Amino acid sequence: MSWHVLGSFANRIRFSIPEGRPLPDEAWRRRHLGILVLLWLHVLGIAFWAALQDFSVEHILLDAGVVAAAALLAGWARLPRKLQSSLAAAVRSSRGRERRPALGPRA
After folding, report:
1. How many CB atoms within 10 Å of residue 47?
2. Residue 39: count of CB within 10 angstroms of its CB
3. Which pLDDT value is given to residue 22?
4. Residue 91 scores a pLDDT above 60
5. Is the pLDDT of residue 84 over 90?
6. Among 69, 76, 81, 91, which Cα is nearest to 27's?
7. CB atoms within 10 A of CB 94
8. How far is CA 24 from CA 27, 30, 94, in A?
9. CB count, 10 Å around CB of 17?
10. What gap in Å lies between CA 41 and CA 61, rounded to an integer?
11. pLDDT at 17 over 90
12. Residue 20 has what pLDDT?
């Protein structure tokens, strides 16, 4: 492999990494809408899974309700863009870390 090929490959990687500048409004809206759709699908998935596990209605509403509340707030256009993004990112990154019941000793 020549140095030119390696340099070209390195430049492609370097220019594909985000630089920390804000996205244009239209690009941000499209991406944020996609994240909101994923959050709402997550709400449905949590409720469906919890119902299959025979959790109580209160338990289902609490588990799915936390994500639903965050999705509602993250989709509220009156909130600043940074807050909407933070809410959506926080709830997506926090799911799956909830406390799980300890498994007993294996027989």
Report:
1. 19
2. 21
3. 83
4. yes
5. yes
6. 81
7. 12
8. 5, 10, 27
9. 7
10. 15
11. no
12. 77
Determine phi and psi for 97, rounding to 5 degrees: -105, 5
* CB-count burial class (<10 Å; 0-12, 13-18, 19+) for 91: buried
Its pTM stands at: 0.68
Q: State in Å, rounded, how far the first CA of the chain is from the last one.
A: 57
- The neighbour count for residue 1, using CB atoms within 10 Å, is 6
In contact, 9 and 3? CB cutoff 8 Å: no
If you average pLDDT over residues 46-54, what whole number do you get? 94
Write down the domain spans for the chain: 24-94
DSSP string, the chain: --HHHHHHHHHHHHHHS--SPPPPHHHHHHHHHHHHHHHHHHHHHHHHHHHHTT--HHHHHHHHHHHHHHHHHHT-TTS-HHHHHHHHHHHHHHTT-S--PPP----
